[in-house]
Design a protein that fits this description.
This protein has about 230 residues and is α/β, with parallel strands linked by helices. It has ten helices and eight strands. Helix 3 packs across helix 5 and helix 8 packs across helix 9. The chain binds 2'-deoxycytidine-5'-monophosphate.
Length: about 230
């Protein structure tokens, strides 16, 4: 059991990609004043590091070495986080579709997951942490006070991703995006190491037909209940 998750309040928000975790975690962090961990970015950075240095994604040993040696820095402002890999701003690069697919591959390797564990736990500092991922409540912070599992239908998640890409000037193919989402769900849910499953004590929220505000208020309500405070409402 992880002792740091006991000393400060930890809110874990797990779920599949595109369910709205990123946006909601940021909002929850703003409302609570807690730190924010985007754990997916660590898998994306490992994947990007492999792609940049020509390491074969199938070479578990070398990919694990890259994960251990990652030289990363997060610059957090109210509305965004800039990510630096070995001093280079890779904020845009880590979000690319092919980096996401590669991240999903390296995330299936148990030694890669083990290499990133302490780095993730080190984010649990006062006054608290909001942790965004797939296994935050099950593996990384099993003692977290508040556990949320946020989901949405694959179609809705694809629709949101298409809108996001259109806003950044792309002309995405809905069918290809939906197929990608399904492939990633399948791999994330069926891998043997830390598969995407809700923790037994997680509150399961489905954002398919809910606005961000509705989901945010359900999460803040849960935090208030579990931590015995109403100050975030
Ligand atoms: O949330 P994201 O799309 O940035 O995550 C990128 C990949 O990393 C995704 O395929 C799932 C994986 N991941 C994981 O296995 N465990 C986490 N805690 C976070 C992400």
């Amino acid at each position: 059991m992880n002792s740091s998750s006991k000393s400060v309040p930890v809110v874990t928000i797990d779920g599949p990609g595109g369910a709205g975790k990123g946006t909601l975690c940021r909002l929850v962090a703003q409302r609570t004043g807690y730190h924010l961990l985007d754990s997916g970015s660590l898998y994306r950075l490992t994947a990007l590091s492999a792609l940049q240095s020509g390491v074969d994604l199938a070479d578990v040993e070398r990919v694990t070495s890259l994960a251990q040696a990652l030289n990363i820095r997060f610059e957090v402002t109210d509305n965004s986080t800039s990510i630096f890999l070995a001093g280079e701003d890779v904020t845009g690069a880590v979000r690319r579709e092919e980096v996401g697919m590669a991240a999903s591959k390296v995330a299936a390797y148990p030694p890669v997951r083990a290499a990133l564990l302490d780095r993730q736990r080190a984010f649990a500092k006062a006054p608290g942490l909001v942790a965004d991922g797939r296994d935050m409540g099950t593996v990384v912070f099993p003692g977290a006070e508040v556990k949320i599992f946020l989901t949405a239908s694959a179609e809705e998640r694809a629709r949101r991703r298409v809108l996001q890409l259109q806003e950044s000037g792309d002309t995405p193919d809905m069918a290809a995006i939906l197929a990608d989402i399904r492939a990633r769900d399948e791999r994330d849910s069926n891998r043997s190491a830390a598969p995407l499953v809700p923790a037994a004590d997680a509150l399961i929220l489905d954002s398919t037909d809910q606005s961000i505000e509705q989901v945010l208020s359900a999460i803040l309500e849960r935090i208030a209940q579990q931590t015995g405070t109403r100050k975030f409402q």
